[in-house]
């Protein structure tokens, strides 16, 4: 608590009131004295009154003087608190000589009133600023963007700090190079968005050099960002930059037509704008958190969480409007291959381009059941990896969804330019429609996913509508995958071998190893059923290594049994080709089994060679240097050219059975088959014809100088024991020791 200093009573009048009282008392004393002097000069009165009267007058005067002095002391004691109040008021409300109001001439009460008027003005300004800060705090908790804060600034600043124009510039969190400019003036006191510009480097440097405030003149040194002031007729602008986490995020500027402004405002304005900058920073942080929570960081599209919320809202609206909603699940075909070829960064760039192309191919008229589209209604989402979803709410039947699906698949079939490479991809899409295919988001998304896998199983690059039978198919695939994993542990997988004969003479010169699966519960499972499942699940890699090692070991046994020239052909899947250790895997299998590389041939399909992977070409070159043969299987069914055959250093091509089936009756197939044989021989490749089933086919191919034949005419694929019986009829040759 403060202490009260008691000052000694002084008889000297210090206040205006004391001096006034002293003047009155002086008159009371001087008037009688003058009267006495007059009476003393009149002899008749003096003689009549006598000395007693004179003495009495002097006594009265002395008493008046005493009373006057005593009254002055008492009055001073009573006015001492007023003096302290005046002194304290001066300390509490210091007045700037340039801004203090004119104090009228008068007593201490007038002076106190003037100081209290100044204090009230300051308190009004401070309370107004505090009220605005409270309003901004409320907006921080209730608003997710800065619009409400800007409106509060435009309204309250002009009320608290009168100016002729007010300008607020705020950076866009989504685009730091764009500044939204709002201006308020007499004709538009509520403010309006006038332009969107960005700070120039010179402006940033100037504003950063004066982080507190600066005064600019419109006629000579106006900042370019303050050009909206020119239309309001102001002469000067008081500029207060806004900084958020150390970065320039905008500014507040007050304009004055007469060029005058109250310097006392700057302190309160700075406090207010600093508070607003904190609020802007919080709203920006909220916006960033929302982006992280609801949007994909790679493509900028809504993520899985946002999609589920969008779908839930769409289903509620659809239930009310009694209209269908389609959800589409899209997955890129062969993205893993592209990712391995271009690297993860290249794969990410491809995904961004896919997101942009999807956004351009899907219209809001397909997807938004509102008169005005909103950001949260964006129809494309990325669930993760290479999986995307489409939400179609403006559909009347399934054909509407089909038209959108065709448009999307066509857009994705066009080549992409990624890191200077022309990349081709496609997509498989599944469509589920509310309410027939599901009544909640989870069920719809699950069924659309099921339909997408069905589309992949039917050749990819297509779309499929969900049907209830797909669940049974999906369950069977899951059951097959589970059983296939168990089959590897239980050694239920076996290899069968189909003979390859020389066209001239019919000698058995090789065998193609083909994978078979006998399940104790399901019986024989066809390769076209379980091989795609093995590829999708990744089981094809360990299975492929087992096939390679087993085939090499079996071929070495046949060599040791007296057939040293027999070769074995093993099919490689696309997954195996993309492995970085392909050469090491093949080399290890040859070394462990003791088979010469010259007696191993690796077969790849034409669709695989079209991938044109540089790492695969390099791996094939290393294998050819080691003596391993390379054959192109199913030739003629794809789009490979002579350039591909040369780049992959192949040793053989195998004519697909679809061409052999029509000969010799079909002249077109016959001509194509003869052309393939001639083309292959011209570049030094040998030719194997698959699917030979009749003597006429064998004769036609032999006449066209096909090198080798393979098909049911000679034998189906049989287990190793039966194949051994087939080669026993062949002339035996002495086994030779290989020193490879």
Characterize the structure shown.
Helix content is 51%, strand content 19%. It is an alpha/beta fold and 740 residues long. It folds into 4 domains: 16-92; 142-292, Beta-Lactamase; 299-466, 2-Layer Sandwich (Alpha-Beta Plaits), CATH 3.30.70; 479-728, EAL domain (TIM Barrel). Strand 12 (426-434), helix 12 and strand 13 (463-465) form a beta-alpha-beta unit. Helix 4 (108-142) packs antiparallel against helix 5 (147-160) and helix 4 (108-142) packs parallel to helix 7 (265-294). It starts with 15 loop residues before the first helix and ends in a 12-residue tail after the last helix.
Low-confidence region ranges:
1-11, 95-104, 368-377, 733-740
Q: Termini, distance in Å?
A: 104 Å
Taken together, the total number of domains comes to 4
CATH level-4 homologous superfamily of the largest domain: EAL domain
Q: What CATH architecture label of the largest domain applies?
A: Alpha-Beta Barrel
Q: Percentage of helical residues? A: 40-55%
The CATH topology label of the largest domain is: TIM Barrel
Biggest beta sheet attributes: 8 strands, mixed, barrel
User: Structural class, please?
Assistant: alpha/beta
Strand order of the largest sheet: 14-15-17-18-19-20-21-22
CATH first level of the largest domain: which class? Alpha Beta
Shape: rod-shaped
Q: Give the DSSP E fraction (strand runs of 2 or more residues).
A: 15-25%
Mean pLDDT: 78
Radius of gyration: 49 Å
SS element count, helices: 24
Number of DSSP strands?
23
Summary, kept brief:
The protein has 740 residues and is an alpha/beta fold.
């Amino acid at each position: 608590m403060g202490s009260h200093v008691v000052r000694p009573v002084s008889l000297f009048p210090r206040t205006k009131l004391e001096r006034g009282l002293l003047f009155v008392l002086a008159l009371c004393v001087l008037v009688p004295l003058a009267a006495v002097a007059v009476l003393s000069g009149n002899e008749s009165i003096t003689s009549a009154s006598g000395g007693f009267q004179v003495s009495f007058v002097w006594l009265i005067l002395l008493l008046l003087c005493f009373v006057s002095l005593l009254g002055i002391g008492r009055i001073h004691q009573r006015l001492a608190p007023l003096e302290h109040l005046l002194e304290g008021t001066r300390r509490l409300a210091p007045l700037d000589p340039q801004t203090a109001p004119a104090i009228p001439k008068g007593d201490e009460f007038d002076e106190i009133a003037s100081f209290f008027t100044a204090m009230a003005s300051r308190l009004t300004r401070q309370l107004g600023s505090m009220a605005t800060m409270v309003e901004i705090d409320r907006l921080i908790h209730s608003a997710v963007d800065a619009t409400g804060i800007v409106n509060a600034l435009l309204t309250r600043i002009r009320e608290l700090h009168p100016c002729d124009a007010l300008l607020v510039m705020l950076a866009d969190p989504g685009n730091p190079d764009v500044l939204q400019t709002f201006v308020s003036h007499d004709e538009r006191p509520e403010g309006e968005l006038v332009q969107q510009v960005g700070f120039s480097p010179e402006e940033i440097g100037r504003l950063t050099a004066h982080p507190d405030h600066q005064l600019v003149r419109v006629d000579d040194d106006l900042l370019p960002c303050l050009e909206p002031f020119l239309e309001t007729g102001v002469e000067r602008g008081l500029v207060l930059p806004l900084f958020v986490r150390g970065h320039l995020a905008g500014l507040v500027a007050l304009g004055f037509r007469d060029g005058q402004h109250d310097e006392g405002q700057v302190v309160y304005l700075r406090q207010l704008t600093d508070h607003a900058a904190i609020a802007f920073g919080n709203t920006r942080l909220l916006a960033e958190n929302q982006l992280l929570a609801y949007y994909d960081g790679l493509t900028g599209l809504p993520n899985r969480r946002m999609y589920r919320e969008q779908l839930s809202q769409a289903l509620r609206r659809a239930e009310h409007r009694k209209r269908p909603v389609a959800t589409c699940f899209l997955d890129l075909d062969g993205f893993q291959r592209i990712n391995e070829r271009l690297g993860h960064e290249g794969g990410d760039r491809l995904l961004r381009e896919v997101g942009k192309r999807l956004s351009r191919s899907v219209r809001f008229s397909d997807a938004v059941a509102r008169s005005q589209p909103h950001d949260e209604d964006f129809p494309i989402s990325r669930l993760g990896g290479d999986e995307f979803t489409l939400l179609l709410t403006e559909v009347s039947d399934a054909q509407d969804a089909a038209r959108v699906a065709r448009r999307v698949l066509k857009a994705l079939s066009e080549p992409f330019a990624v890191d200077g490479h022309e990349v081709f991809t496609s997509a498989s899409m599944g469509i589920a429609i509310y309410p027939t295919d599901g009544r909640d988001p989870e069920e719809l998304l699950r069924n659309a996913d099921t339909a997408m896998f069905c589309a992949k199983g039917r050749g990819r690059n297509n779309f499929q509508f969900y049907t209830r039978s797909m669940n049974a198919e999906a369950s069977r695939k899951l059951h097959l995958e589970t059983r296939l994993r168990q089959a590897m542990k239980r050694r239920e997988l076996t290899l069968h071998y189909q003979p390859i004969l020389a066209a001239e003479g019919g000698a058995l010169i090789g065998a193609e190893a083909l994978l078979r699966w006998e399940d104790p519960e399901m019986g024989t499972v066809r390769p076209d059923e379980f091989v795609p499942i093995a590829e999708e699940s990744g089981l094809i890699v360990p299975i492929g290594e087992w096939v390679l090692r087993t085939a090499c070991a079996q071929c070495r046994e046949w060599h040791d049994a007296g057939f040293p020239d027999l070769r074995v052909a093993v099919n490689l899947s696309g997954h195996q080709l993309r492995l970085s250790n392909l050469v090491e895997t093949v080399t290890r299998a040859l070394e462990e089994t003791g088979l010469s590389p010259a007696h191993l041939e690796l077969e790849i399909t034409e669709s695989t060679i079209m991938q044109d992977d540089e790492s695969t070409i390099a791996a094939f070159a290393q294998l050819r240097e080691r003596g391993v043969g390379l054959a192109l299987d199913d030739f003629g069914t794809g789009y490979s050219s002579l350039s591909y055959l040369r780049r992959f250093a192949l040793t053989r091509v195998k004519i697909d059975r679809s061409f052999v089936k029509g000969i010799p009756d079909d002249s077109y197939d016959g001509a194509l088959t003869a052309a393939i044989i001639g083309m292959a021989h011209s570049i030094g490749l040998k030719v194997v014809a698959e699917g030979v089933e009749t003597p006429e086919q064998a004769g036609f191919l032999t006449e066209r100088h096909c090198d080798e034949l393979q098909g049911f005419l000679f034998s189906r694929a049989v287990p190793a024991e039966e194949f051994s019986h087939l080669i026993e009829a062949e002339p035996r040759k002495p086994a030779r020791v290989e020193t490879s």
